[in-house]
Amino acid sequence: MDKVREAVAAGLPTFGGWVSLGDPLCAEMMGKAGFDWVILDAQHGAVTWDNMLSLIQALDLGGTRSLVRVGWNDPMQIMRAMDLGALGVVVPLVSNAEEARIAAQAIRYPPHGVRSFGPLRNYYATPTGPPEEPLCFVMIETAEALDNLDAIAATPGVDGLFIGPVDLAYSLGLGLRFAMPDQVTEAVKAVVATCRRHGVISGCAAGMPGAKTLMDLGVQFLTVGSDTSFMRRAAAADVAQFKEWVQAYGAKGG
Q: Does pTM top 0.85 for this prediction?
């Protein structure tokens, strides 16, 4: 059983990070950090079809399984990410049951889906056992999706609903909001309740310390930062410390 399902089965939240940079060494470091899983961002990050295989291999080397956020709800992209060895996919901007069905069908082989067979890295059967059960998360990022939560969650093959809070705030007419406004918090509660009714996993893009608030709301699948955010934060902290030392040095007259 993968760490996502293992944690959820134990009643615990599961946490991961984003890889936005297209560098395998960076991905390997993220893989060694101790996350339950890592999402490769092929929608907004520098993850491309040219480097995706190397990034998945680097995460595997670091001991962490990967999911891929594909650029669009495109069966070709979903199938390709799975063939390259991803544990699952995160599909953006899914607003109704038909769009959810397209995503869920693309990740699974017949009779449960339409994925075609490609014996590359992650495929139908292995010599050592049954095929790995994939994970299909669809992103709740629009006002239309909020109106269709039950239908999306009830779609066969959808394993979880993953909230994109910034795009959801945009869709609700709230503009660019990094701090979660009340309307988005209420949407998170609605998604958590819907997932519980339908037995699927609730997820949300988050950071520190916002992830703790979301965990307390019942969200089970949480991102807590990205390679780029960790780098920016660490660099800024060290630069601030160095400037403090320089200021103190100057005040003493060298």
A: yes
pLDDT digits (tens, 9 = 90+) for 16-75: 999 999 999 999 999 999 999 999 999 999 999 999 999 999 999 999 999 999 999 999
Could you say which of 1, 12, 34, 44 is catalytic?
44
Would you give the DSSP letter of residue 87?
S
* Sign of the CA dihedral running 38, 112, 8, 199: positive
Q: Which helix (H) or strand (E) holds 47?
A: none
Q: Which residues contact 46 (CB under 8 A, 6 or more apart)?
A: 20, 21, 22
DSSP assignment, residue 199?
A: T
Asked if omega into 111 is within 30° of 0 (cis), the reply is yes
Instruction: Specify whether domain 3-227 bears CATH 3.20.20.60.
Output: yes
Burial class (CB within 10 angstroms; exposed 0-12, middle 13-18, buried 19+) of 59: buried
Any catalytic annotation for residue 44?
yes
- Secondary structure class of 107 (helix, strand, coil): helix
User: What residue segments make up the domains of the chain, in order of their start?
Assistant: 3-227
